[in-house]
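INFO batch 0412 | record 1 of 1 | parsing
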Amino acid sequence: MKQIIILFLSVIISSSLFGQTNRSSSKQEEKLYPTRETVSRYHNNWTQKHYPQRISAFMKDPLEEGDIVFIGNSITEKGKDWSDKFGIPHIRNRGISGDVTDGVLKRLDEVIYYKPEAVFILIGINDLFSIHHDADNRHQLVYDKIVPSDKYVARNILRIAKEIRHKSPGTKVFVQTLLPTRRDYLKEDILFVNKWIKKNESKGFYKVIDLYSHFVDENGDLKKELTIDGVHLSASGYEKWVNLEKPSIQEIAKEHK
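INFO prediction complete | emitting tokens
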């Protein structure tokens, strides 16, 4: 009888300790995400509301170790289920519509903590829109502050890649060149950022996937059939993107098995 009581007490104590460990782990994981008040000063008025909503969704469906992560803005978010697109499991969508390079830097802790197999980065076009926000009144988006320069954007992209590479050295990092748009005032800035991305590949923090050259027409614009509004991609645009990256994704998935 005495042995039974001791065994019973041991089970209760173990269960209690196990529960405390779980709660501690949960709190630790919560710290991986920006708080509701953490938005970038460069987010436009709409994104300042959408960014915390997406972060809340990420918290409810956290990454898992060994995932392949697509991180970016609306072009990534609107891709929806990337696993379905590639026909490969564990490809996670970490796109936030309206996000900028500064916003991505604020939410890298989750990505780094879970040590993904690979990260594909496509970010920067909203930063450039911010520089020229008065040039396109149709968007009617109010920016709290103007992004300093195209050089600031390019440096931030490099910083994102370096941070992932240094803190999760087993993660393969791919930086995708910015897609062209059908907005003339963005052309030079896009070319500058893409040149910077290609130039710094030699530092070894990431590999470049040159989306731009496959999506641009003879006038330097995003091909009409690949876009719905001159910036965002059509179904054909996403299909082209997937076909371009499928060999890389398949190779990563094969290595992970």
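INFO post-check: Confidence is low (pLDDT under 50) at residues 4-25, 138-145.
INFO record closed
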